[in-house]
Design a protein that fits this description.
mainly alpha, 9 helices
């Protein structure tokens, strides 16, 4: 269907009951939104997020509340931006490489002839006795959260928070050191 200005108009579900047809009509809109949001990797993942947003918009559409095309645009853009935000937060909070480095440094401590480096000694000196014990239990002994819950008598969530604060403290110490 064409509007008076010659633009394609996406019809709400009451008029167009075929979701596949609606999704096909909004593909150019989805591509434009992805470009506008600077999506340059995981393109298929974001296209799937957009398709789900179109599905939700199509299911929840109400012709009396406004233009269906604008509703789809808003839904898709909102979901894509939310997914980008979630990915960025995840990348900032969970640096697996640094965690692996810590495992390597600590695991080498138990091997023959291993002398703790100045960096490791500096890190360990900055920690309290309790923090060192927790670090040892997690990385040297390989205890999981359930075991630590029994040892310390605190909830798993509290253990996770302590571990996260410990890692943050170590990261700050690593950033302060000249390279």
């Amino acid at each position: 269907m064409q509007s008076s200005k010659g633009q394609k108009v996406v019809l709400p579900p009451q008029v167009s009951d075929d979701f596949e047809a609606v999704l096909e009509q909004v593909q150019p809109m989805i591509t434009a939104i992805l470009k506008k949001c600077h999506v340059y990797k995981n393109f298929d993942h974001y296209r799937q997020i957009a398709a789900i947003a179109v599905w939700d918009a199509w299911r929840n559409a109400d012709a009396t509340k406004g233009n269906f095309s604008a509703y789809i645009y808003t839904m898709v853009q909102g979901r894509v931006k939310m997914e980008l935000l979630n990915e960025n937060q995840y990348a900032e909070r969970y640096a697996l490489i640094e965690d692996d480095k810590m495992n390597v440094l600590i695991n080498r401590r138990g091997t023959e002839g291993f002398q703790p480096t100045e960096l490791l000694e500096g890190i360990l000196d900055q920690l309290t006795v309790e923090e060192r014990k927790l670090l040892e239990k997690i990385y040297i002994e390989g205890c999981d959260y359930v075991e630590l819950e029994k040892v310390y008598g605190i909830s798993i969530e509290t253990i996770r928070k302590r571990r996260n604060r410990l890692i943050q403290k170590i990261r700050l110490h690593l950033q302060e050191k000249p390279k």
